[in-house]
Amino acid sequence: MLLFTPVTQAxxxxxxxxxxxxxxxxxxxxxxxxxxxxxxxxTLERPENPAEPDGDMLELFVAxxxxxxxxxxxxxxxxxxxxxxxxxxxFYASTANAFAAVRRxxxxxxxxxxxxxxxxxxxxxxEEALIEGQYSRKQTIAQTKTCLQALPYDPRYxxxxxxxxxxxxxxxxxxxxxxxxxGISYGSRVAQHFMRRYPGSTRTVILDGVxxxxxxxxxxxxxxxxxxLNKIFxxxxxxxxxxxxxxxxxxxxxxxxxxxxxxxVMVQLMNPVTxxxxxxxxxNDRMAGALRLLxxxxxxxxxxxxxxxxxxKGNFRPLAAQAMVISKAxxxxxxxxxxxxxxxxxxxxxxAGESVTQEALETTYIGPLQLDALSAICSVWPAGVLDDGFKxxxxxxxxxxxxxxxxDPITPPAYGDAAALKFENxxxxxxxxxxxxxxxxxxxxxxxxxxxxxxxxxTLETECLDRLHAMPFFLDFSGPAx
Length: 482
Description:
Blueprint: E1 24-28, E2 37-47, E3 57-65, E4 77-80, H1 88-94, H2 100-103, E5 108-111, H3 137-150, H4 160-174, E6 179-184, H5 186-197, E7 202-208, H6 221-238, H7 240-245, H8 249-262, E8 265-270, E9 277-282, H9 284-294, H10 298-301, H11 304-312, H12 317-333, H13 336-346, H14 358-362, H15 369-378, E10 400-405, H16 413-419, E11 426-431, H17 444-454
Parallel strand pairs: 4-6, 6-7, 7-10, 10-11
Antiparallel strand pairs: 1-2, 2-3, 3-5, 8-9
Helix pairs in contact: 3-15, 4-5, 8-11, 9-12, 13-15
């Protein structure tokens, strides 16, 4: 069944394939209240269980942002969101400028991965605190069972191995001969498996914040987050302004952690919409979850020493408010059912192979809480479809551009090196003093545009990356020093 009737349609030029998916005018958004981006949208029907093509069907949301050129190139860019659990349409809408150079001559094709966004969303009442490790093991298992019972679909069929089949079906339905694939964070895992399974459908690949297939993401999250925090503290100490304003930030943070571990504090916050006062409990677990996500982005990294300093001085409101905002954003952007379907099939069964000790986790500011939570969730979550060879490095001669942030708290540059182990045609670029996700940083948008245009890594001009800089630290709430 085709949901929409075409109005006017520009299909890829020089393609021998005939499109079968009909689209109509629409708008996509990063979320409620955000401005819309014009697109052409439709619904791709796919079997819930790919082994039963005549069984129950899912409706997957598709959006195409047409190229600005009147004669676009025949191979679009396909951005794939991270999470796992974020919708690609929302991700693109929030970072569209990063792909502006590509869109001059190519369509942007978006598929909300099954279980996310408007594609058979896998939502339940479980809070985002569940995956951040803020419940006991017993509570975590109980909430996970409740979540499973509430899911509208079978979670076994919401893994990466199935999702890449949807992408290939979309390519055929839209009539494109090949895709240029961009994957951010977990999306880089999807991109790698797509190029592994459908090499003839893949022209170029961009991996941003790289998750290598052979890695079980989870055990080392706390360790990499601690390394990133240490670098933030070191950069503050090396900065004259930050070092003078917060001379003991690292030791102060250790004392703050100890204080909040022993006893939580009650913090009164004002609701930004209603103005009503709300009292919330704030402890080390919530602080750790907030700091981990704050360390992803340059603008929020710039706030971290100030937020910690204020908490040390007894003013917990700014840090607690950040935790509340981040928690709300996480719950709105991540479909926890899809998240668990991926992690409990592709990561948790392989945790033991990562050789991360409890002692090592105890030395980090996050500790073992998040890993323990994931282990508890996956103890009752059903494992899903996993292709043979899924956990092996991809062997390919397809041109691959890998992007890493020097201070990435979850996917450090070493992960990009591990992913490229069997690539024959690749370049790995690292953003100095940058966090998670490089496409929106500085001139990287132009580099990405040039790479997709030429599919030639040897001609890329990357000297502009030398001008990348870290955002100056806030010395007070009016901003950095002039």
